[in-house]
Amino acid sequence: MDKNLFHHKTHVHVRTYEIDWQGIVHNAIYLHYFEVGRIEYLNQIGAKVDINTINFESKVVLVRNEVDYRNPARLGDAINVYSRVSAIKNTSFIFEGMLERDSTGEILAENVAV
């Protein structure tokens, strides 16, 4: 993914309970980071994201969530979460995301969510 295509960025920090026995962020936590980015993105563009819109008005359902892991995140890392809508279709939209270690610019993971 090309970082220049992203116009939204938010930040997360790795917390103690997110690491596994190897001392790196557990693979499932990356999904949480991407979700934080998507919700922040929607809030920034003015989309109403709350329990009422999710359950009653919009019925947004995640049908695909793909992660390509590039490098491990570690305890204390500050991570930049990049998010964008890459396509809008008839009944779906596609989000792309990228995680970057703030201190080095190293890409940690990439995501496609439909």
Question: What does this 3D model show about the protein?
Answer:
Helices cover 22% and strands 33% of the residues. The protein has 114 residues and is an alpha+beta fold. A hairpin with a 5-residue loop joins strand 4 (93-101) and strand 5. The longest helix is centred in the first third of the chain and has 18 residues, at 27-44. It is globular, with a radius of gyration of 14 Å. The model has no long low-confidence stretch (mean pLDDT 92).
From the N-terminal CA to the C-terminal CA, the straight-line distance is 17 Å
Biggest pleated-sheet summary: 5 strands, antiparallel
What's the overall average pLDDT, rounded? 92
Which residues form runs of ≥5 with pLDDT under 50?
Answer: none
- How big is the Rg? 14 Å
Bin the strand percentage. 25-35%
Report helical residue fraction. Answer: 10-25%
The count of strands amounts to: 5
The topology string of helices and strands comes to EHHEEEE
Strand order of the largest sheet: 1-3-4-5-2
Shape: globular
Tally of alpha and pi helices:
2
Given helix and strand content, the structural type is alpha+beta
